[in-house]
TrEMBL record:
Residues 10-30, 1086-1100, 1112-1125 have a biased composition (Low complexity). One of its GO terms (cellular component) is chromatin. This is SCD domain-containing protein. Residues 1-34, 1013-1066, 1079-1125 are annotated as: Disordered. The chain crosses the membrane at residues 157-178. It comes from Trypanosoma cruzi.
């Protein structure tokens, strides 16, 4: 309850209000009657109105109950029009129109509400602060809550006092609030729709309570029953009237906050009053929300669907048609760019599966293809989305498991079979390399219980022992992924920025950690003794060897304690050495996996470590012997050396270089790379040789770090780096004629290796080497950019083919290719940017580096250049010099790219003046000077800086241009566009494209009103089609709008006798009870005439303004406030949506 405020004068003497016979029962206003208060809350000062006191009381935190009580007393004592005007003025002041108030004349039937609203808006000061509903301070948040509660209490207390349905209070409020909700002013629509939603919500609660309290039919109760039923019917009609006239249109409002309010309240009504609102005609409103561009509105629609499926009884049948129609959209939203929307969409799919079960496909809500598309979110980069997809996967498994196998061993086996079948499909049809890791990561969260079909891993081991190679690979993949997940070693790439909270690994309770450790030990022991048999059975299969290697890398070797188990592991290491020695040409991923297996043998501390090192040394001797034979072979020429044998040797050398140091073999490695650097050598083979040499250098650097003050070691490392850099340059000089599909992998890897080496202080590139380096960087960026554009086009075509019934596997393949190219370009750009950041490249070459910004087709790559630009700019504290040098380099490179580079550079400045704003002005002056003396083409770049200029700077530049005869009289298109841009920035001419009616309807109070005042001093406030009527009734309307000090002296009008609020004009009643606008044939002509009149009137005003003198303009400025703008033109979309509905996106002022 608000504290008592010391005031000068009370509004009216208090009076006791008697409650009606039937109490109300609303959630917002539950209780009996009107609460008593010791003193009135609405207190007035001298010269203030009741509306101002009402607004002040709610703003200062007074209790809404006591405020409504005082209004009811005043209303019952005869101040009916005073109370109605006070409530309307409260809405006006909450909308920001605090300088003008309505009197009793505004309540007459013949009052033009639209004109009065435009007058209120026009008299709002231009420098006025924002209206309370968009301000974030604490007192305004309290006011918004009190405002909603005020209207909810008004319904309850008004009904208890028998004044709600008297034909004046509610009908008057609804008439004005509905008119406000259709205003072009967002502030009026916002505050009125909040009030209308609160009124409808309170009416819903009141109607439900009265229905529950209807007396049973009997002698003497029929009259009371009829009276209550009549009241209920009247309130139902009022509620439906508000929904059809106002709320029905606002889900398509241009203001997102208004759309969000409507959807929030509709969702609450559907959940709380499901018997009346849980129908398809209300559900379909949320179909628009699913396509809304604002994520919070899409999330609100998904939240409603989720709560409805969970909480509302028989919701599955009621929402069935809605889900059936929008199932495709729900599937699309599972991949929404907003993480919250994607999570909610997947949860909705889970509920659909659980509510409908196997019937979801039979009822044509979800089919297997839709479920497969949703399950692809298992491979999302965001962990939260993967975990939600894991819940969906479990629901899908539960819906497909037979009912007779709902628990126990049969369920676990059936679930694991489904999971392995899904993984096998992903591998065979979609080309996924490691789907099991993503599936395990999605299904298991360390903070939750492990699914039973994963905890009892016997079914996995059955697949490991299968005769089918694909089933073995899938089983090994699941075992390896589960071990990695349990040991917190499962890594699926860097976490995205919006979902880094999932990357925090929380420490588990001791008892739970013990259970997990026991499971890791048991699984390692059981699967480890089976691996040697698997290798024997599938000898020579590289894919199975890679799967066994993944399991070895994830195993806990301390689990093998008995002699039999140790013997099996020793046999496994021997088989691994033989399989590695006989390794044929294979993919890079398989080589990396085998390397991880050997690192698990020799790096982890376990009793078998020494035996593993012995196997590695044996393998190393064998490989070095074979490599030396290849190098010294003289009986055969190089062309006779089979490529297969070379891949055989260097594949094993690449594995060994990651495990042991090959520094003593550096001369042999260097000679090999020089020998095979020619056009006939496969790029893949050169990648293996380069990677081996690079690891050899890293081993030497590790030795240097461990050695203290060893000058000799430093000299050795620097020499090795210099020799490797020379080899890389020689590889670049190679003109290969055999450019395979993945030929860019070699230059990308070599570029990244060179950036890593030059980032060290052991080696510094010469100027000639820097020129070659930048030239290769330019060439590589151009090639990757072109390939990226082609790959995106293929992905787009694959998506279109899929929509027409094509294979989803082609989409997945195209998406992987796009990801690979983007990763390659990102690696190269990051490496070069790091050299500039570490001063390993001179700052003079920075403009040449930024030229490749033009070849950045993705946001991630572009962000690298943006970060580099900010860092270099902050380092030198001079943005103009850097931007100027980049533009000059772009001009010499290609003048056609000037505009694109100018767009990128100008975007580095904030929309408002920032720390480096002076650089914008300097860049424009530089462009003018360069265009005057050299080439006007430079104006293509600097024209993008014009919108960043302040008005005074733009005026100064415009005067300079007017004095520059070379550009002022130039016929060059670039010069003309630049002069036009400068004039627009100086507000000397309107922006291009501002001649449309909608554009001219915006910002009228801020842009047009000053021109009208300066032009003629006129301030007629009526719509153009009713100016004659306004002239005749000018005096009457002037009396309707008064100052607060004159409010109390106005007379009151008579009491209305209408039973409900009047229906808005030009609306028809449909069969479903909607009051909508007429058909398209009746609406279009009026729209066209309104648009033409608006365009003529708008174009005429500036013309009249130009003929006025400065003295008349000054006199007009001192006159009355400006007029409101043209009449609102509302567009009807009935033909496009439903034949019985109209959704309107109201034009508005900004």
């Amino acid at each position: 309850m608000a504290g008592k405020r010391k005031t000068k004068k009370a509004a009216t003497p208090g009076a006791t209000v008697t409650a009606a016979a039937a109490p109300t029962d609303t959630d917002a206003a539950r209780g009996s009657g009107v609460p008593d208060a010791a003193e009135p809350v609405l207190l007035q000062e001298e010269g203030s109105s009741l509306g101002e006191s009402l607004y002040k009381a709610l703003m200062e935190g007074a209790s809404a109950d006591h405020v409504v009580k005082d209004l009811v007393r005043i209303y019952s004592d005869g101040g009916k029009e005073t109370v109605c005007c006070a409530i309307l003025n409260l809405v006006g002041k909450a909308s920001g129109a605090a300088q003008v108030e309505l009197d009793g004349n505004a309540l007459k039937d013949d009052a033009d509400v639209t004109t009065l609203l435009e007058e209120m808006y026009a008299r709002t000061q231009q420098n006025a602060s924002a209206y309370p509903f968009v301000r974030k301070e604490t007192k305004y948040r309290v006011f918004r809550t009190a405002y909603r509660r005020f209207f909810a209490r008004l319904v309850e207390f008004g009904y208890n006092a028998n004044i709600l349905l008297d034909g004046l209070l509610l009908s008057t409020l609804l008439r004005w609030l509905i008119a406000m909700s259709e205003s072009k002013a967002r502030c009026f629509r916002h505050t009125s729709i909040v009030a209308l939603l609160a009124l409808v919500g309170a009416l819903n609660g009141l109607i439900r309570d009265l229905n529950h309290r209807l007396p049973s039919r009997g002698r003497g109760k029929q009259q009371q029953l009829n009276a209550l039923q009549e009241s209920i019917q009247t309130m139902v009609e009022l509620r439906n009237h508000v929904i059809s006239q106002s709320i029905h249109q606002r889900p398509r409002d241009v203001a997102p906050e208004i759309r969000l309010l409507v959807f929030e309240q509709l969702g609450k009504w559907i959940l709380n009053y499901d018997e009346e609102f849980a129908e398809n005609k209300y559900f379909r409103y949320f179909g628009m929300a699913l396509y809304d561009k604002r994520p919070e509105i899409r999330a609100e629609a998904l939240t409603m669907i989720q709560k409805c499926l969970v909480a509302t009884p028989e919701s599955g049948n009621r929402i069935f048609l809605f889900l059936q129609f929008f199932a495709g959209r729900l599937v699309e939203m599972c991949g929404d760019v907003n993480m919250r929307c994607a999570e909610l969409a997947i949860r909705v799919m889970v509920l659909i599966l659980r509510v409908y079960g196997e019937e979801a496909e039979g009822k044509e809500i979800l089919d297997n293809e839709m479920i497969d598309r949703v399950l692809l979110t298992l491979f999302d980069e965001r962990p939260s989305i993967r975990h939600e997809a894991g819940v969906l996967l479990r629901a899908f498994i539960d819906s497909r498991v037979p009912k007779d196998a709902s628990n126990g061993v049969a369920y676990q086996k059936a679930a694991m079979e489904l999971l392995c079948a899904f993984s096998a499909t992903l591998r065979s049809q979609y080309g996924e390399v490691m789907p099991e890791r993503y599936l395990i990561d999605a299904l298991y969260n360390p903070l939750q219980e492990l699914p039973p079909f994963l905890e009892n891993y016997g079914s996995m081991l059955d697949f490991v022992l299968s005769d089918d190679a694909l089933e073995v690979v899938v089983g090994l993949g699941f075992v390896a992924a589960l071990l990695e997940k349990l040991r917190c070693k499962l890594y699926l790439g860097p976490l995205p920025k919006e979902d880094r909270r999932q990357g925090i690994v929380k420490k588990l309770p001791p008892n739970k950690q013990e259970v997990i450790d026991a499971l890791v030990t048991s699984l390692s022991r059981d699967v480890g003794v089976l691996l040697d048999g698997v290798l024997e059975k599938h000898r020579g299969d590289v894919v199975i060897l890679s799967g066994v290697s993944a399991v070895i890398a994830a195993m806990e070797f301390k689990a093998f304690t008995s002699l039999e188990q140790v013997a099996r592991i020793n046999a496994l290491m021997t088989l691994m050495r033989k399989a590695t020695a006989a390794l044929p040409r294979c993919e890079e991923a398989h080589l990396n996996q085998i390397t991880c297996a050997w690192l698990g043998f020799v790096v982890e501390d376990h009793p078998l470590k020494s035996a593993a090192k012995g196997q590695i040394q044996e393998l190393l001797k064998q490989v070095l012997k074979q490599l030396s034979a290849l190098q010294k072979g003289k009986t055969r020429s190089e062309s006779q050396l089979e490529e297969k044998e070379l891949f055989h040797v260097w594949g094993r050398m690449s594995i060994l270089s990651s495990i042991v140091s090959l520094v003593d073999q550096w001369d042999l490695l260097k000679a090999s790379i020089l020998k095979y650097t020619n056009a006939s050598t496969s790029p893949e083979l050169l990648r293996l040789i380069l990677s081996t040499c690079m690891r050899c250098v890293l081993w030497q650097l590790k030795v240097e770090q461990e050695a203290a003050d060893s000058l000799e070691a430093t000299t050795t490392a620097s020499q090795m780096i210099g020799e490797l850099v020379t080899c890389i340059f020689k590889v670049w000089e190679m003109d290969s004629q055999r450019q395979t599909e993945n030929f860019t992998l070699l230059p990308v890897d070599s570029m990244v290796y060179l950036c890593d080496l030059c980032a060290l202080r052991c080696y510094t590139m010469s100027q000639m080497e820097q020129d070659v380096f930048l030239g290769k960087f330019s060439e590589l960026s151009s090639v990757l950019g072109n390939e990226m554009r082609e790959a995106k086009e293929k992905l787009k075509n694959a998506g279109e083919l899929f929509c027409e019934g094509g294979a989803l596997s082609e989409v997945a393949r195209s998406r992987r290719e796009v990801s690979r190219l983007e990763a390659s370009q990102l690696r190269v750009a990051t490496g070069v940017a790091r050299l500039l950041m570490l001063n390993r490249l001179s700052e003079d070459v920075a403009p040449r580096v930024f030229l490749q910004w033009l070849h950045a087709p993705t946001k991630s790559v572009s962000d690298v250049f943006r970060f580099l630009f900010r860092s270099l700019r902050d380092r030198c504290n001079d943005s103009f010099t850097l931007e100027k040098s980049i533009l000059i380099a772009t001009y010499h490179h290609s003048s056609d790219a000037l505009y694109q580079m100018g767009m990128k550079l100008s975007s580095m400045h904030w929309p408002l003046p920032d720390k480096y704003y002076a650089a914008c002005v300097s860049m424009v002056r530089f462009g003018i000077e360069f265009a005057t003396t050299t080439d006007p083409a430079m104006l293509q770049a600097v024209v993008t800086y014009c919108p960043k200029l302040l008005k005074m700077d733009a005026l100064s530049l415009a005067h300079a241009l007017a004095a520059n005869e070379t550009l002022a009289k130039s016929t060059d298109q670039n010069a003309q566009l630049f002069i036009s841009a400068i004039r627009r920035a100086a507000r000397l001419e309107e922006a291009e494209g501002a001649t449309t009616p909608v554009r001219r309807a915006k910002r009228v109070r801020e842009e047009k009103m000053s021109e009208i005042m300066e032009a003629s001093g006129e301030h007629t406030l009526q719509p153009r089609n009713s100016q004659r009527e306004a002239t005749e009734e000018g005096k009457e309307e002037e009396n309707m709008l008064t100052s607060p000090s004159q409010f109390n002296s106005r007379s009151r009008s008579g009491r209305r006798t209408a039973g409900k609020a009047p229906v808005a004009s030009r609306r028809v009643l449909t069969e479903d009870g909607w009051r909508v606008r007429p058909d398209k044939e009746e609406v279009v002509p009026s729209m066209a005439s309104s648009i033409s009149e608006s365009m003529e009137a708008t174009s005429a005003r500036p013309t009249r303004g130009l003929k006025r003198s400065h003295a008349k303009a000054a006199a007009a400025t001192a006159a009355a406030p400006p007029t409101a703008t043209q009449e609102t033109v509302l567009s009807s979309l009935a033909a496009d949506l439903d034949n019985d509905e109209v959704f309107i996106a109201t034009q508005e002022y900004d």
